[in-house]
Amino acid sequence: MTDTYDAIVVGAGHNGLTAATVLARRGKRVCVVEKSGQAGGMARTVDYAEGARGPEIAHLLYNLSPKVAKDIALRVETRKLPTIAMSPDGKHVEMAGDTLRFADGTAHPEAEAYAALRKRLVKFARLLGQLSDAPPPSLAEGLAGLRDIGGLARLGLNVKRLGKQDMREFLRIILSNAYDLLLDDLADGPVAGALAADAVRGCWSGPRGPGSVFTLLYRLGQGGDVLLPMRGMGAFETAAKDAGVEMRTRSTVASVMVEQDQVRGVTLDDGTILQAAAVLSSLAAPLTMQLAGARHFDIEATRRLQRMRAKGTTAKLNLVLSATPDMPGLSDAQKAARLIVAPSATHVESAFNPVKYGEASAAPVLEAVLPSLSDPSLCKDGRQVISVIAQFVPHAPDGGWTAAQRDDLSKRIIQTLEVHMPGLQDLITHSTLLTPDDIETLTGAPGGHWHHGELSIDQLLTVRPVNGLSRYSFGVRGYYLCGASAHPGGDVTGSPGRNAALQLLAEGVLS
Ligand SMILES: Cc1cc2nc3c(=O)[nH]c(=O)nc-3n(C[C@H](O)[C@H](O)[C@H](O)COP(=O)(O)OP(=O)(O)OC[C@H]3O[C@@H](n4cnc5c(N)ncnc54)[C@H](O)[C@@H]3O)c2cc1C
């Protein structure tokens, strides 16, 4: 059986769905092929247990591109959450926008320094954020190169417009480490810890790593508000269906067909052939190359793609609780906040050390949220769900993940939470742990990596995923990369998906 489309998208993660929707809304016939039974990739809502739902992997929005939301008519209701930096002494700190105060409402001595630092970081982050909604500048020579460099020139101009002092500061910090930056202005406590954790979440790096300021700014590119998507992350799938995208779930793309250097479609693992003049892959770049066959890429590109670094460091623990846990020092409303357990920036750095040697941190850095407190539709009978991202956890410990190691990791995460939620263990009725290895199995992301490939200086912008393949068009005419390993990177942004689809149209592949 052979069906013919204008474009086929491999993978129904939110980027694949975004790319498909952009094309479908411009009149193209698009089919998305997804190996699992449910769309969404890392951004989907699942049953934790009978009558209790929650985010499977990604749980919060902070980096969604407004251009994407507009372009695909995304209808997602959100609730803005404050962040609570949990303190071992019970004096937790509430961070809401530029405001900092103790959770009991009393003034925090660092409120002024924090507000000034955050304002400065958000200002810089917005500048960088401008680069996210377009392909990165190309290094091509001639007129094309000059045209492409426009975005960078605009950034340069805007950096200059910051004024002398801010411009110097921007250039001083942009490639430096978050640890030094934060501790220039803040004491090494839970506030610095929360910001340091934000800087390296999903990365193979501690806050002392060079470039960790960049990853902090990347997170803040849309202003830094933390949003809980009400009723889960399903809006991308709804937008795609509304636009007329055809979805084929439980279908795995086995290979991409190429003839005479031109994409012709895909072959599914059951032998079905789907034809199209364009194929967009939201798989990581090395897998995208393998689907078409390395022989279609020049030897240098093949070598670079094989070397792309992608070691995941985040695990996910999803719990169903029989009741809302006790959290001394927090009001009922504050229990619904984004909760960060990172007692100091130094703690975050130390937590990174074991993962270098294939071990999980004994005191993991946590980001937890109880979405059912804000969105009671997720849970029945007074139960609650808690969604926890734990860092630093190795992708493949020596000898692989044994049942005992998995059990040990779950216990460490729960014990770390229990310091702030006494009695938590007794409330747990269901527990699901996803190690980075499990995340790779579920989604195909190499190493279970948050960004499908490290977001580091040598894998950014013009060299993301690798030099020579940074502008979505992927080696073969009609073949495009549209997932998190493309510019600007991961998070639930939709930007790689939208940029890739627009680039495909601009290059006239479907005209
Ligand atoms: C633990 C963790 C927590 C996170 N939390 C957040 C968060 O709270 N907020 C945030 O903004 N970001 C978060 N992220 C990052 C974010 O989820 C990802 O960067 C983003 O969702 C990637 O989207 P994508 O569409 O590019 O790829 P994916 O979501 O990985 O989608 C790829 C899709 O391709 C499918 N697929 C794979 N192989 C094939 C094949 N051969 N044929 C067909 N289909 C195939 C997969 O099943 C999958 O559906 C988190 C990441 C991790 C690991």
Automatic annotation (TrEMBL):
InterPro entries: Amino_oxidase (IPR002937), FAD/NAD-bd_sf (IPR036188). It holds the Pfam family Amino_oxidase. Residues 16-283 form the Amine oxidase domain. It comes from the Bacteria. Signal peptide: none annotated. Gene3D superfamilies: FAD/NAD(P)-binding domain (3.50.50.60). Probable oxidoreductase that may play a role as regulator of mitochondrial function. Interacts with COX5B; this interaction may contribute to localize PYROXD2 to the inner face of the inner mitochondrial membrane. This is Pyridine nucleotide-disulfide oxidoreductase domain-containing protein 2. The lineage of its organism: Bacteria, Pseudomonadati, Pseudomonadota, Alphaproteobacteria, Rhodobacterales.
